[in-house]
Amino acid sequence: MEIRSGANPRDVKLYDTERLRNDFLIQDTFVVDEIKTVYSQIDRIIAGTATPVSKTLLLEAGDELRAKYFLERREMGVINLGGTGTLTLDGQAYTLKYRDGIYVGMGTKVISFKSEDGKTPAKFYFNSAPAHMTYPTVFIDPNKDIKPENKLELGTLEDANHRILRKYILPGQVESCQLEMGITSLEPGSVWNTMPCHTHDRRMEVYLYFEVPENALVFHYMGEPSETRHIIMRNEEAVISPSWSIHSASATHAYSFVWGMVGENQAFDDMDAVQMKDLK
Predict the structure, then answer these.
(1) Is-contact 209 271, C-beta < 8 A?
(2) Mean pLDDT by 10 residues, the chain (280 residues)
(3) Closest Cα to residue 77, out of 108, 56, 51?
(4) What does the pLDDT read at residue 3?
């Protein structure tokens, strides 16, 4: 497990490109027949991937968590971004096709990942956060299980930000201790997300960008509103966003991203809006 430390905005504004990428960007996410995990000390979130091709992969705690098993004190959300695969939780198997998700409650001991066909492997992406109680494990088919109020059409083509936001895990949809997850997809011709932008001091986020064409780029914007920076990202790369930072992007092509939030509360609309005129 890779450990990433916290970040002070007074220091970050002095970072060069290499330091920004080293501290916040997560690359080489989906590695064949491996589980990859990055532990951020910002609200203790873990962003991870499992890419089973020729074998079944078992998720273990490792020495870093000082736990008997991965979810001894944690909860987890998983979304499949590849071919059909099987997630087995304490002997109970769940089949996840592309974009299917699942919430896994604290206390689940044995977690394994397997692809239906190694030629088109599953790509399991997960976020995990500390938990204080056990909520039920819930399977999420985005085409059937997301309530109408949790599928939002936002923005306009004229503003280049026409997008569909699907909330997978949050109060009223799938209960959790603190974790929230979902997917936002840009419609053809739109390239901006979360603009006008915002911060939220009570939560942090991790974004994983996907469905980015091979020769396309995503410009992820971060930093304090008065000290913005950018990180150039490519397909299936993730970025850590501290609570004091804006988190927005523009790209050379429409794209999608998984967002995961943890922190003080689960009020989705608890945001501190930033006026366009105040960005620098």
Answers:
(1) no
(2) 94 96 97 98 97 98 95 98 98 98 98 97 98 98 96 95 97 97 97 93 96 97 96 98 96 98 92 93
(3) 108
(4) 96
Place of tokens 């936001």: 165
Cβ within 8 Å of residue 132, ≥6 positions away = 177
Provide the residue count of the chain: 280
Structure-token pair, residue 8: 């002070």
- Residues annotated in the binding site for Zn(2+), as ranges? 198, 200, 205, 247
What are the sequence ranges of the domains in the chain? 2-278
- From first CA to last CA, the distance across the chain in angstroms is 35
d(CA 214, CA 191): 16
User: Which residue ranges are tagged as binding site?
Assistant: 198, 200, 205, 247
Residues 56 and 69: beta-carbon distance below 8 Å = no
Q: Position 259: which residue type?
A: W
Tokens at residue 97, please?
Answer: 């096709």
Distance of alpha carbon 277 from alpha carbon 225, whole angstroms: 10
What would you report as the CA-atom Rg of the chain, rounded to the nearest whole angstrom? 18
Q: Which CATH superfamily is domain 2-278 in?
A: Jelly Rolls (2.60.120.10)
Q: Give the CB-side neighbour count of residue 2, counting CA atoms within 13 A.
A: 16
Nearest Cα to Cα of residue 114 among 93, 145, 85, 143: 85
Q: How far apart are CA 72 and CA 84, in angstroms?
A: 27
β-bridge pairing 35-40 and 2-4: parallel
Return the ∠ at Cα 192 (arms to 194 and 103), rounded to 5°. Answer: 55
In 25-137, the DSSP E strands lie at: 25-26, 35-40, 46-50, 57-59, 74-80, 85-89, 92-96, 101-104, 111-115, 124-130
The HSE-up count of residue 168 (CA atoms within 13 Å, CB side) is 31
Q: Which two tokens stand for residue 257?
A: 């991203």
- At 136 the pLDDT is 97
